[in-house]
Amino acid sequence: MHKSYCDFGIPTSKDARYDEKLEPLPQYTLADLEEIYKPEVIQTIDEALDKLSPELRKLSLDIHDHPEIGFQEKHAHAALTAFMSAHGFTVTKHYLGLDTAWRAEWSTGTGGRTLGVNSEMDALPGIGHACGHNLIAICGVGVALAVKAAMEMHDVSGKIVLLGTPAEEGGAGKAILIERGGYKDMDVCLMSHPGPGPNHSIGIGPSLAVQSIEIEFFGHTAHASAAPWEGVNALDAAFLAYSNVAVLRQQIKPTHRVHGVIRVIPDYTKMLWLVRAPTYAELEVLRERVKACFSAAAQATGCRMTLALGAAQFDLRQNSVLAHTYGKIMGAQYDWTTTMAEGAIGGSTDFGNVTYAIPTEPNGGNHTPGFTASARTKEAHELCLTVAKGLAALGFRVLDNEGFASEVKKAWKKDMEKK
């Protein structure tokens, strides 16, 4: 059974977060953030990505035409690592024990900050790249290479780390990489996600935290007519569990979601449930209430039950400083409109786990067969590169301007105080 949390589309140990020892810096004002930072740098970025566009288009179509589901992205792994190596990055394949994860890094000068960028690669079963991960992959590549060009041209020290992250669609690849220290040295991490809506528009907003729960009820068969009392009915347990959750829904908040599916054979049932809430703290409370529904069903029917929790995906939290600045860049430089969403979108993503570890700024998306075709069009490619230009300009400012980087981290720390 394939699990997909990203319907559009943990907190880790302290050492997985960035170094919190920051020197005091001047306070930034909104007026400072309104200014377009170094237009000459944006020109360098634009020229670099325009030059790379044919290569990136070829790479995108290659990934799109070879769709691979989570943790099986071997073709994408090979294509992307070869591409980054050819462009001067030091590449680590099979990163941190994940066969299809990879890391590409490049640095120059002494000291400086580290800019993280994400490239997703996995497709959906049966409908391929219906969430546009081929575009996410080349957007990450484009951001990394454009920032590299800007750092070289304008003599800025620092490091770029591009992570190829597998299995966003239900496998929580980023959560695994966070737990293994994959994001430890990043100051910020950037990612974009394609989605529906008007052209030349951007949506910036949170997503829901999600927890998968897999339950198995084990009974044993008996003759339905001769000795039904000797049976233990696993279907009854599943039915009661489903009914218990249905009743629970009357008492949960409108922003919370619980939904599940059932597989049945006579003496065995298996259920897969997804529990969602606007924040991870709320998710933890709701998850325990849902688990109690399953335990009660097992006790009432006499079935043996096993329960397994999947990797949690945290709510995605946009960094307010990065989001505001990115919107300003896209509006002033490329004439795009930006919508700042207050409430969470319906889906969830393992990039939410990254936002709990370091400051981030991604964009939205959805799953339909039509989106698969759209993800390989020339128009989608051109829009993707414009998004990459804005993200590259944003990332360069983090590397180049210490005051701005400090404000980003302050905003992140303040947001992490919220439950």
UniProtKB/TrEMBL annotation:
Name under which the protein is recorded: Peptidase M20 domain-containing protein 2
Domain Peptidase M20 dimerisation: 212-298
Domain of life: Eukaryota
Organism of this sequence: Heliocybe sulcata
One example GO MF annotation: dipeptidase activity
Similarity-based family: Belongs to the peptidase M20A family.
